[in-house]
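Hi all, posting the design record for the shared folder.

TITLE: backbone redesign
STEP: 1 of 1
STRUCTURE INPUT:
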């Protein structure tokens, strides 16, 4: 059974010691029950056991969920989750094997805000750094890394939600050809998905712009903290502790202080070059390797599902145009407007939350 326990206003949903050699983690569907090991989701005020449908219905009856750490409200859909799930299950069943393009809406239930919803990062004035800004000036890199030292640990602590586990389950059962994600949080992989193209890179690795050397971001930032001990102490005294909850979708955080410009940025240990998160900043281009892999996944599938993305960025929208030219059916699961809307490209349009629709869809396909 699934059990909900309230911990600091947040429910920890856990599995009562069930194991499977074939599926050693992630989500398992058995006897119409949804088992999600070590999952953390927003919740209410009681402890109980739920079937998949009741679990979804109980969540749906709650008011718009607020992530207590970020003041971010997860947008609500039309409220027709079962109907939407039935439609998506039918779409996937007819296509037999589909590819997914996922965006920030996939990770909102994990506590990572999106960009474009009413309480998303853009609504609070967040303006992501561009590639040119990062490369051109040391002061811009100081600003970026000082904010990252505050926000990254919170970003890195987030866990996959039921939507991620549902896609992992569908992949293992042969319904999903592959995932193309615009997110840099790595949650699809942590949920057990194997064929994942991170179109915009990963936020958990840093790379030298000169020699290409890569390092785990946590390791790099730990070295930065050690080298800037007095700086960190002064920052903490001003109330900006590492792990501050004002996290953004890219791991950035809101730190408004001139102190950030005194940060000593650690260079590449191999060539003394500039280290940058291994992500595609605005104004930069997607690597040819990622493009080739993403188009390959679309070409190998019989249907394309956009989940939790407005697909405003052309790197993702170009995949939709490619699918349409090949007459591959397209479904969209997203709350809010998308670039696909009213173009006639989509075969199915659903205005619901991914963490609501995808688990129920997976169950219907079992």
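Okay, here is what came back for every position:
SEQUENCE:
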């Amino acid at each position: 059974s699934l059990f909900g326990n309230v911990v600091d206003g947040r429910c920890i949903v856990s599995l009562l010691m069930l194991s499977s050699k074939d599926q050693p983690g992630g989500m398992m569907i058995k006897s119409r029950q949804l088992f999600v090991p070590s999952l953390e989701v927003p919740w209410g005020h009681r402890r109980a056991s739920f079937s998949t449908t009741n679990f979804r219905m109980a969540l749906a009856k709650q008011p718009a969920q607020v992530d207590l750490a970020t003041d971010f409200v997860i947008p609500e859909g039309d409220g027709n989750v079962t109907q939407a799930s039935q439609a998506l299950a039918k779409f996937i069943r007819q296509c037999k094997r589909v590819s997914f393009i996922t965006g920030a809406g996939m990770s909102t239930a994990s506590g990572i805000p999106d960009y474009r919803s009413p309480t998303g990062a853009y609504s609070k004035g967040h303006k992501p750094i561009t590639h040119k800004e990062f490369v051109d000036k040391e002061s811009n890199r100081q600003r970026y890394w000082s904010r990252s030292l505050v926000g990254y640990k919170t970003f890195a602590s987030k866990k996959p939600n039921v939507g991620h586990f549902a896609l992992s389950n569908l992949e293992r059962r042969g319904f999903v050809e592959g995932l193309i994600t615009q997110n840099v949080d790595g949650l699809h992989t942590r949920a057990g998905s194997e064929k994942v193209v991170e179109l915009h890179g990963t936020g958990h690795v840093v790379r030298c712009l000169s020699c290409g050397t890569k390092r785990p971001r946590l390791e790099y930032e730990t070295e930065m903290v050690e080298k800037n001990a007095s700086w960190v102490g002064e920052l903490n005294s001003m109330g900006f502790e590492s792990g501050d909850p004002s996290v953004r979708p890219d791991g950035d955080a809101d730190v408004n202080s001139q102190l950030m410009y005194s940060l000593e940025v650690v260079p590449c240990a191999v060539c003394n070059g500039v280290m940058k998160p291994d992500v595609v900043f605005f104004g930069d281009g997607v690597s040819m390797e990622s493009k080739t892999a993403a188009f390959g996944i679309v070409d190998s599938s019989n249907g394309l599902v956009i989940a939790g993305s407005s697909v405003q960025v052309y790197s993702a929208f170009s995949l939709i145009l490619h699918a349409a030219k090949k007459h591959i059916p397209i479904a969209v699961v997203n709350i809010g407007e998308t670039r696909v809307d009213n173009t006639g490209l989509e075969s199915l349009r659903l205005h619901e939350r991914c963490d609501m629709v995808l688990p129920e869809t997976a169950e219907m396909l079992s």
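COMMENT: The chain is about 35% helix and 20% strand.
Let me know if anyone wants the other runs.
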